[in-house]
Amino acid sequence: MTAEAAVKYVTEIPEEEVSRVSEWINSEEYKEKNFARQALVINPAHACQPLGAELAAHGFEGTLPFVHGSQGCASYYRSTFNRHFREPAPAVSDSMTEDGAVFGGQNNLHEGLENAYTIYKPKMMAIFTSCMPEVIGDDLTAFIKNARNKGIVPQDYPLPYANTPSFNGSHVHGYDAMLLSILQTLTEGKKIEGRCTGKLNLIAGFDANTGNYREYKRILKEIGIPSTLLADISESFDSPLDGTYRAYPGGTPLEDAADSVNGKVTLTVAPYASAKTFNWIKDNFSGKHISMPTPFGVEKTDQLLMTLAREFGKPIPESLKAERGRAVDAMTDAHQYIHGKKFALYGDPDYLIGYVTFLLEMGARPYHILCSKGTKKLEKELQALLDGSPYGAGCKIYINKDLWHMRSLLMTDPVDAVIGDTHGKFMARDAKVPLFRFGFPIFDRVNLHRMPLIGYQGAINMLTTICNKFIDIRDETCDDRNFEMMR
Ligand code: SF4
């Protein structure tokens, strides 16, 4: 008897039933049931809070992310970053198990801190929580104070910590909470009356595109603005392969982060991913505080450059003006391939605003816009963008819906393409449309995190990727007589 023959299926489903259900889930009737769903989330387009906290921690010099909670959770965050960046993501966990869940995780935290401090010699450990210690109500403030009093870590050793309960919020909120705590810790007592570093503090938010960080730094250098990029992951997750392993490559120097409290201007280009941090900065940092959208597309990049030029009294250099001209030229050359096309979009709030801005500039239609952890404020802002363009007419926003909802939308009200992350590949395949992977995480393509999406160069990159794919599809599907050299 073969092994296959020995398998006894518990339930036999006739092929006709499989095809009936396969067709039914593409129907209007199913969509209505799907949208009536209340108590179940299927394939949400976000990760949990601690994952975001870990990204913020990786953005600082010599910093070891420390997960207070379950080891499995820590592995999930690390493996997500490993797969997205194809780089190591060194982080530790104090591995709470059943006894920690019953008696509290203080012993785990103390032992973990002692080991990590001794073995990995980080300059700072950034502590954040997984679900388990949040459910049982572990008191991080007291645990950390006790650790210092017991001499596990020196009294003045920087140990920022954030409560990052995953049953509330998303990776974006965890990023914000961790960044806030890191800045509170590093800047404590560093504000000096009358001192101004003359620098810009830039907050990029939860952005897992290392190319974007490099692009910000390049633009600032072109204009001649001294800057501190807070939570700079450009080296942490994109360091050169030179034969030497470094546990903590790159990151914002701790001294610069501490002195950021005396900055000339603090600018966030991620209002949704740094809302709490920015509110605190407004009350505590010297200088001006400015919040603006992530610079996707030409108009928002213009806004960024003009703001920087105004605040630092610098002219916009010819090189950037020329870059703008090239972006406009590239958009003009390519618009015929994207104009009027319908897109389905999902992702983080700051990125969604960026996608919508870019598509409307190209005369494309951001037709289904979905955020699985969004707010009324986000909905209003997206709606205002749609209302401000003729291409926004008839486009719809879905807040706190998931990718299974999005699948129903694709099957009942089709689009030409999807923009999102790797998790959308199944529905895009079912809907037989391309998926443009601009978000996070991207597991199934290489090097996309190195391709900037922000600024004029980012606009060129996005439209090149999109338009060439549409041209590929035309080449692959057209009749022989329409298979042209020129497209
Ligand atoms: S949702 Fe909670 S249990 Fe799941 S990986 Fe995140 S922290 Fe761990």
UniProtKB/TrEMBL annotation:
This is Nitrogenase molybdenum-iron protein beta chain. This molybdenum-iron protein is part of the nitrogenase complex that catalyzes the key enzymatic reactions in nitrogen fixation. It catalyses: N2 + 8 reduced [2Fe-2S]-[ferredoxin] + 16 ATP + 16 H2O = H2 + 8 oxidized [2Fe-2S]-[ferredoxin] + 2 NH4(+) + 16 ADP + 16 phosphate + 6 H(+). Binds 1 [8Fe-7S] cluster per heterodimer. The keyword Nuclease does not apply. The gene is nifK. Residues 48-470 form the Nitrogenase/oxidoreductase component domain. Belongs to the NifD/NifK/NifE/NifN family. Its cofactor is [8Fe-7S] cluster. Tetramer of two alpha and two beta chains. Forms complex with the iron protein (nitrogenase component 2). GO terms for molecular function: ATP binding; iron-sulfur cluster binding; metal ion binding; nitrogenase activity. It comes from Geomonas terrae. Its EC number is 1.18.6.1. It is an enzyme of class 1 (oxidoreductase). One of its GO terms (cellular component) is molybdenum-iron nitrogenase complex. Gene3D superfamilies: Nitrogenase molybdenum iron protein domain (3.40.50.1980), Nitrogenase Molybdenum-iron Protein, subunit B, domain 4 (1.20.89.10). Keywords: ATP-binding, Iron, Iron-sulfur, Metal-binding, Nitrogen fixation, Nucleotide-binding, Oxidoreductase.
